[in-house]
Structure formats: C-alpha cells, structure tokens
Amino acid sequence: MTTEEFFKSLAGKIELTQSEADKIAKKHNWLREKLCEKLSVEDDFLTGSYARNTMIRPKDGEKFDADFFLAFSKQEYGESELADLLKTVKVALYEIKSGDSDIEKIDDKQRRSIGVIYKDNFQIDVVPAVQIEKDKLYKIFDKRTQTAVNSNPKLHSKNLTDANDATASNLAKRLVPIVKMLKFWKREKCDYLKSFHLELLAVETLKDEEITSYSAGIAKFFNSVDLQSPLTDPANEENIIDTYLDEDGTRDDLLSLIADERKTANEAMELEEKGDDDGAVAKWKKIFEKDGDENKISGSSPIKTGPVVINRGPAKPWCSL
Fold first, then answer.
1. SS3 of residue 166 by DSSP
2. What is the DSSP code string of 198-266?
C-alpha cells in the first residue's frame, strides 16, 4: 500500500455515507422550513462541520450532530439575551415536534442551542443569532461562556472552500479531506482541542501552497502549525480563538503532542522518499491509529472515488419577514 492509498482508505472510513448525508439533509431542510414559517427571522443557514463538509463519522453509539443558525432581526432582537432567544426557538420547536414522528425529544438544556434529537442516531442543534449585516456579521453567543460576540460563520466556510480550491494539485483537492483526517486524529489523541480551532489552524498552515499529496500536506501541518501566536477569528480580530488552551492548561500538552507527531511524520516522509512505502505507512499508523484500535486502516478498506453530495438547501427568501 502506498501512503496515498493509506490516506484515501482512512478518508473513506471517516466519511459520511451518501445515505447518512441524504437523511440529515432531508431533516434539516424540513426543520428550517417549519421554523421559518413560525418565526420572523432574517436568515437561516447551516454552520459547523456539516456546513463546511468537514464532518466525520461519529464513534459507535454517538450521534451525528448538524447545526444551523436562525438569525433574528437586529431591530427587533438586537438587545435580546441568549435566554430570550432560546425560549423563542424552544416554543416553536415543541410545536413542530408534533408534526414529525422521527423527533425523539427536544433538548432545551444545551448551553447556546436547542437540540432536536431524532430516533436515527443524529440530532440537529438550532442556534439563535442576531443579524447585524446580512452575510457579513452576526451576533452569536460563545458556547463556552455564553457571552455575545460578533462573527461570521459564512466567512469561515468561504475561507475553507477558497483554500481547498487554491491548494488543489492536478484537480485533486486535498485540504478538506486532510482537515477531516486531522479531526479524526484530534478525537483519538487530543479531544480537548476544539474542532473549529483545528480547522482554522489547518487552513492557516496549508493555504499558501499546492498540496501535492496527503502525506506532504499532513507533514507540513505538523511541521509548520503555529500554536504559540494568538489565533484570531477571520471575521473579527477581537475574537481570540485559542485562549481556552491557557485557561484549561492544555497548551503545553498540545505542543508536546505536536512535537512527537512531527518527528514521526518526518520519519515517514524520509521512508517514502526512499521508496519504502510499507515503512512510511507504518509510521503514519503510529499517528492515526491507537494501540489496540479495532478499526485499523488496511488496504482492503473501501476507497470512495466520488464526493458525498450534501444537499444543504439555501436560506428561504420568504424567511425575511
């Protein structure tokens, strides 16, 4: 097995299946439509890893989780607190629940969203926000602190898409699959690292060069990622993304882990350059497989040759009431 085949196999294992993507799309499109019928909102749009196509399959027994924002009018709701917006959304969702037998429960105990939990092992989180400037700036609430911050999830998605296009090599777009593989690595080895933070780090580290192979891109990430300088939100420089690492005391742990992975990645690249694919793959497995991992990556794993199509659905024009 070549290193490229190894990474394609890994990508295939953690990718959503088309049926899973279709099921989530059907449910979130219907739910967004019903909420827009009941509530006066300026915009509704998907956000998070599902929207950016960086979602990975959850571990057995865990739920898929898709998020979307309901953006309320600044004029009517600009001074509203999170609790008020959550209450408004909650009332509407309980009314909608009666029309969909697949909804198991409404979880109104989450910090900044209302969870709609379905019977088929997934949930949709409805996140209220306030539109400050359409498509450019939104008042959202930090999941950790619940304080209001101004940001733009649409810009985050655009930046990732642009970087994925810009780093393509011979029409092969590897950045988004690399982000997914790094999220798999994060889940296994440093789950304290926030997924959004990791995505920003990957884009910032890899956006300026063609990614000629998965191994080259991932090795560059471990060699060049900057964990010392403050990382700011591309939509608002006042938002510092990585302060939680210092508050939690996990920055040194992450630096140490990255140093170990850098050494292993460089050893893998040296073996690959010498033509020793088996040795290189063995090194990469030290990064992406844990000892005793039952879901090991092998050459017999299915490799997906086409993208999973996610029907996200646009915001409905008749939501702008």
1. helix
2. HHHHHHHHHTTS----HHHHHHHHHHH---SSPPEETTEEEEETTHHHHHHT-HHHHHHHHHHHHHHHH
Return phi, psi of residue 161, to 5°.
-60, -45
How far CA 265 is from CA of 9, 108, 272, 280, in Å, comes to 18, 44, 10, 9
Contact 23, 295 (CB under 8 A): no
Identify the pLDDT of residue 23: 86
How do beta strands 64-73 and 122-133 pair?
Answer: parallel
Helix axes 251-273, 214-224, angle to 10 degrees: 140
Nearest partner of 117 among 227, 31, 54, judged by Cα: 31
Q: Are 93 and 151 in contact (CB under 8 A)?
A: no
Q: Which two tokens stand for residue 305?
A: 């040759």
The helix/strand/coil state of 64 is strand
Q: Which residue has the tokens 């953690």?
A: 14
What are 303's two structure tokens? 């490799």
Residue 132 structure tokens: 């400050």
Length of the chain: 321
Taking the C-alpha atoms of residue 191 and residue 78, their distance in angstroms, rounded to an integer, is: 34
CB contact burial 178-188 (16+ within 10 A = b; e otherwise): bbbbbbbbbbe
pLDDT, one tens digit per residue, over 9-34 is 999 999 988 888 888 899 999 999 99
The structural domains of the chain, ordered by start, are 18-151+309-319 (3.30.460.10), 157-288 (no CATH)
Q: Is residue 103 within 8 Å of residue 142, measured between CB atoms?
A: no
Amino acid at 24: I
Burial class of 226 by CB neighbour count within 10 A (0 to 12, 13 to 18, 19+): exposed
Residue 221's closest CA among 171, 271, 185, 275? 185
């490229």: which residue's tokens? Answer: 4
168-222 pLDDT tens trace: 999 999 999 999 999 999 999 999 999 999 999 999 999 999 999 999 999 999 9
192: left (phi over 0), alpha (psi -120 to 50) or beta: alpha
